Amino acid sequence: MSKVKKKVKVIKIDIDKCNGCRACEVVCSAFHANPKYSSNNPARSRIRLIREPLRDVYLPVYAGEYAKAECAGRDKYVLDGKEYEECDFCRASCPSRDIFKEPDSGLPLKCDMCEDDPPQEKPLCVQWCINDALTYEEREEEVEEEVKLDDMEVGLGSMVDKYGLQKVMDTVARMSKKE
Ligand code: SF4
Ligand code: SF4
């Protein structure tokens, strides 16, 4: 495989600085509303807060790759005297939980670093985090060229996993007749 230069975008999370305000969820869901900024609903956000105020747990987590099956991992972590489940840190849109799924369609959500068009100076959640719990860095790396699935392929794949190929094909055929 050939090597290509790639801009790597990194959001660093300092959980000690997060106070659970949820501004990151609000701006992300509003930016991704259709039309943009027409509504906000944290369930549509690509960053979610694992939030347990009684235990002073505030953990921002970014939506990552779609996973068609849940994993077997159920370890627990104790950090600074607070206990976390393995799933708390997981970025996958997976069948074992509700987060990182578009609430109406069930399609998987993934952080897109706020797309490139229009270009954002910094990801919006970073801009809106006034506590500096989220900070942004960019660097260049040489990586192997990869074949990337676009959002539509990932979404269709998740529907096929859930309902089966035949049902998805029947639905598309029925919809195309209506148009
Ligand atoms: S905006 Fe910052 S402080 Fe507020 S919940 Fe998100 S990460 Fe935490
Ligand atoms: S970087 Fe942009 S798309 Fe990703 S979680 Fe933050 S606001 Fe949402």
Question: In a nutshell, what does this entry contain?
Answer:
With 179 residues, the protein is α+β, with helices and mostly antiparallel strands. It has helices at 23-31, 86-89, 124-128, 151-163, 165-178; strands at residues 3-13, 47-52, 57-62, 76-79, 82-85, 134-144.
Features:
179 residues; alpha+beta; two-stranded antiparallel sheet; 5 helices; binds iron/sulfur cluster
How would you portray this structure in words?
Strand 4 (76-79) and strand 5 form a beta hairpin. This protein has a two-stranded antiparallel ribbon. It has a two-stranded antiparallel ribbon with strand order 2-3. It has 5 helices and 6 strands, in the order βαββββααβαα. It has 179 residues and is of the alpha+beta class. The termini are far apart. The protein has helices at residues 23-31, 86-89, 124-128, 151-163, 165-178, and strands spanning 3-13, 47-52, 57-62, 76-79, 82-85, 134-144. Helix 4 crosses helix 5 (165-178). The longest helix is centred in the last third of the chain and has 14 residues, at 165-178. The radius of gyration is 18 Å and the shape is globular. The model has no long low-confidence stretch (mean pLDDT 89). Bound molecules: iron/sulfur cluster (2 copies).
